[in-house]
Amino acid sequence: MPQSGIDVTRIDTVAQYPVGYEMDDPRQGAFSGNKIKYCRANGTIPPNSAVKADVTFATAAQRHATMIVTAGAGSFDGVADCTLVNVTTGQFFWMTTYGLATALTAATTAGTAQGTAAAGGLTDLTTVTSAQAVGRTAIAMSATGTPAANLSFVLLR
Fold first, then answer.
1. How many domains does the chain have?
2. Which structural domain, as residue segments, surrounds residue 78?
């Protein structure tokens, strides 16, 4: 059930919720049915980037919710599409883990499975390795350029 009163677009310098807390997205409309997760950044994360858990983070109990930008082919845990500006090391933010997200993409075709590509981007799985078999799945709902340049709507599962 969505929590009212939570601004998912805010970036915090001190954790306001338990790191790793997941809930239904409180925004309605296109976000109905989405799941979001409260995370810590361990590096600069531009808006709409695909992110993954930093398994090298010093506090082992928080590795599942400490995020870094994906780099090259690999798995991802969600999309940092709730904020509109860069999130930097040590800041806390909400990311989409399930449902409709807006993601950085390159040469994406609507209806195709997505995998990670260049830093924080997604691309058609036919152009990257099959290493993405673990982690989240994403299907492009629009080609690159919709809703804006270098972005696509994707469905995270």
1. 1
2. 22-156
The reported pTM is 0.88
Q: How many CB atoms lie within 10 A of CB 53?
A: 21
Q: Is residue 7 part of a domain?
A: no
CATH label of the domain that carries residue 120 = 2.40.300
Distances (CA, A) of 63 to 16, 66, 111: 18, 5, 32
Q: What is the pLDDT along the chain (157 residues), one digit of tens a residue?
A: 556 789 999 999 999 999 999 999 998 888 899 999 999 999 999 999 989 888 888 888 888 888 888 876 677 889 999 999 999 999 999 999 999 999 998 878 898 888 787 788 888 876 545 544 456 788 899 988 899 998 999 999 8
